[in-house]
Amino acid sequence: MRELGIDLAQVRTFFVEDPEQAFVLIRVPVDAADHWADLLGVPARRCYVSDGNAAANVARTGQPLSAVIAAKTPDPGSVMAGDFGEILTALFLAASAHPADVYDPKKWRLKQDRTKPAPYSDVVQLILPEWPKSSPNDRLVCAEVKTKSTDGKSTPIASAIADSRKDREGRLLKTLVWLRERAIGEDLGTVGLDHIERFLKAIDHPPAARDFRAVAIVCSRLLNVEIEDVKTPPEDECTLIVISVPDLKNNYEALYTAIAASVA
Question: Which Pfam families match (predicted)?
């Protein structure tokens, strides 16, 4: 996550844990969310395209930087909401692991179609505290993320728990194979082929933990209804994390406005 140019210690202050629940409940303070657009515009832009690749595409095509960024980011709607939830989850998980280095392939850069979600597992992070040497302390973190910003019939908590099972039953492996193929053909930033193969060729390395997360990003005004009668999954399956964000729709739209404005 280094190449995002963000202070993960500061990011950690955005998330306040409520200890009264059987699952992990995170409440984002209003004043923190109000500053996201100012603080996260450039880092969020880098989730979609590195500064180097953006500059190279400007030089190659003759298009302005604003057009290069617009060609990578989603339009307002469900995909934008989903991408926001995934990026927020990636930042939360990385900040929680800090000061350990977190290698995140930033799957939003690898989309074939900006109007659709990135394929396979939502968020995958590699924690390799002794790299370039592999160790028994290495961890592979995989999160299934569901976002709910407006009223509706969706059930983000139950859906995140159910779809996390797909990661455990094979989707994570497919994701790693896909990432390996992409790493052979293109630059994944701070994530290299050797990082991915550390987990794909597990027999050549010490055993590593695989931690699964089911994450629901929920607008704070909807929270009480959504967490009513929550059935927490067994600890050996996945960890349930619910992140309550004030005025979620306006805040994620403000962030994407800041992404577009950051080209100045």
Answer: HamA (PF08878)
- Residue pLDDT, tens place only, 18-77: 998 889 999 999 999 988 888 999 999 999 999 999 999 999 999 999 999 999 999 999
CA dist., res. 95 & res. 102, Å (int): 9
Give me the number of domains the chain comprises.
1
The residue among 70, 79, 57, 134 whose CA lies nearest residue 262 is 70
Q: What is the DSSP string of 120-143?
A: SSSEEEEE-TTTTS--TT-EEEEE
Domain extent at residue 96 = 2-261
The enclosing H or E element of 145 equals strand 139-148
> For residue 160, how far is the Cα from the chain centroid?
14
109: Cα within 13 Å, side-chain hemisphere: 25
Which strand ranges, in their side-by-side order, compose the sheet holding 16-18?
16-18, 24-27, 239-245, 209-219, 139-148, 123-127, 102-103
- What span, in angstroms and rounded, lies between the C-alpha atoms of 237 and 261? 41
Whole-structure pTM value: 0.95
What pLDDT, in 10s, does the model give residues 235-263? 899 999 999 999 999 999 999 999 999 88
